[in-house]
Amino acid sequence: PPPPPPAYEARQFVVYFPFDQYILTPEAQAVVSEAANYAQGGNATQVVVIGHTDSSGSPAYNVRLSERRAKAVADQLVGMGVNQGALQVDWKGESQLAVPTGDGVKEPLNRRSTIDINF
């Protein structure tokens, strides 16, 4: 008999951004594409995109930048066929740093959007 189809489990993808930008780089587009394929392959029931920034810039500016990052990723996912009804979008500014830093630190790993896929 053929092997069983792969089991889809909850998984997180991380999309990184250049400093002070929300445009998807080719590397970022590849991650979003992989996430879209994974979500569609397993018929994801929930896809949560959360935008983040590093701690450089004002908190208010960073909230807006993290929103733009989250929406850029969400728009790309929908453009690749992910069900908009399963999509939730949120943004945290600099409030949930991946790498804890002091204020005003340019940390590349904090400039990201996460894509959490649940089934």
How would you characterize this protein structure?
The chain has 119 residues and is of the alpha+beta class. Helices cover 31% and strands 20% of the residues. The protein is built from 2 helices and 4 strands. A 4-stranded mixed sheet has the order 1-4-2-3. β2, α2 and β3 (87-91) form a beta-alpha-beta unit. The longest helix has 21 residues, at 59-79. The protein is elongated, with a radius of gyration of 15 Å. The protein starts with 10 loop residues before the first strand and ends with a strand. The mean pLDDT is 96.
Layout of strands and helices, then pairs:
Blueprint: E1 11-16, H1 26-41, E2 46-51, H2 59-79, E3 87-91, E4 112-118
Parallel strand pairs: 2-3
Antiparallel strand pairs: 1-4, 2-4
The portion of residues assigned to helices is 25-40%
Spatial ordering of strands, largest sheet: 1-4-2-3
Outline the biggest β-sheet.
Answer: 4 strands, mixed
Give me the Rg, rounded.
Answer: 15 Å
Shape call:
elongated
Annotation field: number of helices = 2
Defining key terms:
single chain, 119 residues, alpha+beta, 4-stranded mixed sheet, 2 helices, 31% helix
Short description:
With 119 residues, the chain is of the alpha+beta class. It is built from two helices and four strands.
